[in-house]
Amino acid sequence: MSHGRLFRIASEWQKKKKTIWRFWSGMRKTWKMRAAALLLTAVCTVGASFAAYADDVPSGPASDMELIQRREQASGSQNEAGDAQTAAGSENHAGAAEGQQTTENQETGNNGQTASETQGTEQGDSQVPDGMVASGGRYIDPNAPMVALTFDDGPYAPVGNRIMDCAEQYGGRVTFYVVGNRVNSYKSEIQRMYANGHEIGNHTQDHKYLQKLGAQEIRQQVEACNQAVAAITGEAPKTVRLPGGGKNSTVLANISQPIVLWDVDTLDWKTRNAASSVQTVLNQVKDGSVVLMHELYNASGDAAVTIIPALVERGYQLVTVSELAQFRGGLAGGTVYYSFHK
Ligand SMILES: [Zn+2]
Question: What is the C-alpha separation between 230 and 8, in angstroms, rounded?
Fold first, then answer.
């Protein structure tokens, strides 16, 4: 089922629900009529739900706008759900429960669909707040401060999942620059990154310093990592991070994807000290910064779960590298970026 179609079904169902509710309200003058209305509503609810699901159960994660619409429905229809629990209650309850968990943090994931696709196909029937853009399962304000936290050298599930848990709790998304030869050892972590709207970047196949390699090997290192990720998610990384940031003219001539380095270096790999990384980030971060951390160390995970809420508290939106670039001038192949300041 296409996303557009799913939305039409969802919005038609919302309209039907309102009509049913008005009918039910009018009927509740006598208990007999009320009982009849309840029965009718219950039959309609079960029937409509069954029809929607029987048609085609979506196999992938929900799209950005589905998730947002669900949350809006959940918060908007709580009164109605409270009154009509016996009738249309089951669906509203599920929605309301999700809404309560995610009202502030908007933690649900997405399917990796880009913001531009979402805008193109779905903005028409959605209620996006003024000036906001749907991306990665939540809204982004393109004019408000934003920062991209990046974690290199993974995947490594024990730390990566902690980082994602925390980021998602705060409505944030992060970027993982992964080493191709590791991804098959952490397939489900890679799948979670992709499904929940985090970005998977290319950190080469074997973490070799590319400035020491010839043209063909450079190309192989980048291409093999692209393929390893795509074999799991169906989509190759958009950007490349050079191991150690090492580059020369041969490296730049043989990588066609945008190269994203950083402007805030925590040196977490060296210090293995969470407090030091936290302090570096909070002292140096600016709107449009790209922060370098590493996924392999518990101390980096400790730092991340402190940094994430602290940045949100300071008004930063936690976005992926591609989201940051999208709102700050875009990305060009073969170009090296260090930050995306305004
Ligand atoms: Zn690295």
Answer: 31
